[in-house]
Write a structure and sequence with these properties.
The protein has a six-stranded mixed sheet with strand order 8-12-7-11-9-10. Helix 1 crosses helix 2, helix 1 packs across helix 3 and helix 1 packs across helix 4. It has about 300 residues and is α/β, with parallel strands linked by helices. The protein has three domains: about 60 residues, Winged helix-like DNA-binding domain superfamily/Winged helix DNA-binding domain (Arc Repressor Mutant, subunit A); about 100 residues, D-Maltodextrin-Binding Protein, domain 2, CATH 3.40.190.10; about 100 residues, 3-Layer(aba) Sandwich (D-Maltodextrin-Binding Protein, domain 2), CATH 3.40.190. The two termini are about 65 Å apart. About 40% of the residues lie in helices and about 20% in strands. This is LysR family transcriptional regulator. Belongs to the LysR transcriptional regulatory family. GO terms for molecular function: DNA binding; DNA-binding transcription factor activity.
């Protein structure tokens, strides 16, 4: 390969310039070394690559074929070098992700563990932010990509994948309310409730339900932290209201039950994996993005929230 690549470099310079002397000056190589390389290959092929004319050298038909092949070879070599440079970057690549609080357990930590097992040279930074801050982090370049609710109105984002997430009641395992697959919002009347507080994204949906049902909630407790709400439900303080995404892990483990709120006014929320519309992810970010995207569907309702006995 080194001898062939040396010849090809010499040959293509001569073919382009039409002169061994000019090629020698351009490549800073002796003319005799270039001539010797060309003569050796011509002898191996059994035919000339150049016509020797008083005015210089001109490619023969065989030389034209060699010239075209050399162009392809140089392009392929350039592509190979670019891929190798990508791999070098990958070995020291860093990827920043922005996610909402609901994803701080379960799928995302598991996906990162799998990615680091397969690509140990990639380091990953995860920022857990409010929904609007996730969008800002993606658009500004603070994060390579992110996951957030309801991205439709954001023109500066490109949605790579999305799933539907629903609102529901959360109860401890074995609670009679949890035996229901679906229930209207009014079914919680008279029960102690644990509700999310701003800035959690579900607050707007709860306000819509209060307005349409005429049921005014007087919560036993409220919190802006999903883990606190699930902990209070497990302690028996009351019935929680969260999304299916918030409690996938607990429902799969059988520690909590999820009952979808079935009021017709309530539409599913869109959870989206997004990149910035104005930027192309780096090679390392593309690897991580692809790995997370490949399993993104498991965050949807009802596929991942249902237990085998339902």
């Amino acid at each position: 390969m080194p001898a062939f690549s040396r010849f090809l470099r010499y040959f293509m310079a001569v073919g382009r310039l039409g002169s061994i002397r000019k090629a020698a000056d351009e490549l800073n190589i002796s003319a005799s070394a270039i001539d010797r390389q060309i003569l050796n290959v011509e002898a191996d092929l059994g035919m000339p690559l150049f016509e020797r004319l008083p005015t210089g050298l001109r490619l023969t038909a065989a030389g034209e074929i060699m010239m075209a092949a050399g162009g392809r070879w140089q392009k392929n070599l350039s592509d190979v070098r670019a891929q190798i440079e990508d791999l070098r970057g990958l070995k020291r690549g860093h990827v920043d992700i922005a996610i909402i609080d609901a994803l701080a357990k379960g799928y995302i930590p598991g996906a990162i563990r799998a990615i680091q097992s397969r690509y140990p040279g990639i380091t990953i930074g995860v920022r857990v932010l409010e929904n609007d801050r996730v969008r800002e982090a993606i658009a500004s370049g603070e994060a390579d990509f992110g996951i957030l609710f309801e991205p439709q109105s954001y023109r500066d984002l490109t949605v790579r994948s999305f799933v539907e997430v629903v609102l529901g009641f959360l109860t401890p395992a074995g609670h009679p309310f949890g035996e229901q697959r679906e229930a209207r919002f009014s079914a919680c009347a008279g029960s102690p409730l644990i509700v999310p507080a701003e800035p959690l994204a579900v607050c707007q949906q709860i306000a819509v339900l209060e307005g349409t049902s005429g049921l005014m909630i007087e919560p036993a407790a409220s919190s802006d932290n999903i883990q606190m709400i699930t902990s209070l439900v497990m302690q028996g303080v009351g019935i929680g209201i969260l999304t299916s995404l918030d409690v996938i892990t607990e429902v799969q483990r059988g520690t909590l039950s999820f009952t979808r709120i079935s009021d017709p006014i309530l539409r599913p929320m869109t959870l989206a994996l997004c990149t910035a519309a104005a930027r192309t992810p780096s090679y390392a970010a593309g690897i991580v993005l692809g790995e997370i995207e490949s399993g993104f569907a498991q965050l949807s309702y009802p596929v991942s929230i249902e237990r085998a006995d339902l």
